[in-house]
Design a protein that fits this description.
Order of helices and strands: HH
Number of strands: 0
Radius of gyration: 19 Å
Number of helices: 2
Largest sheet: none
Distance between the termini: 29 Å
Shape: rod-shaped
Helix content: 40-55%
Protein name: AAA ATPase AAA+ lid domain-containing protein
Organism: Aegilops tauschii subsp. strangulata (Goatgrass)
Length: 71
């Protein structure tokens, strides 16, 4: 994954966590503040993002579509 992918994963995990907090699914800590998202939120978002990325492990010839012609 590129840096942008990792940034997007972190932002998505934090948005997901914030929406849970707003819906009252996450209790406040002893200071009355929302706790930080657990690592599981980030891992779940990373797995979801990885599934949406193209498979770059296959050789270019086996990917769908004809190869690109450059100049």
């Amino acid at each position: 994954m590129a840096g942008r992918d990792i940034r997007d994963i972190c932002m998505q995990a934090e948005r997901h966590w914030a929406s849970k907090f707003i819906r009252g699914q996450i209790p406040k800590d002893e200071k009355g503040e929302p706790p930080l998202p657990p690592i599981d939120e980030y891992v779940a978002c990373a797995e979801q993002r990885r599934k949406s990325l193209p498979d770059r492990t296959r050789p270019a010839a086996s990917r769908s579509g004809p190869p690109l012609k450059l100049a």
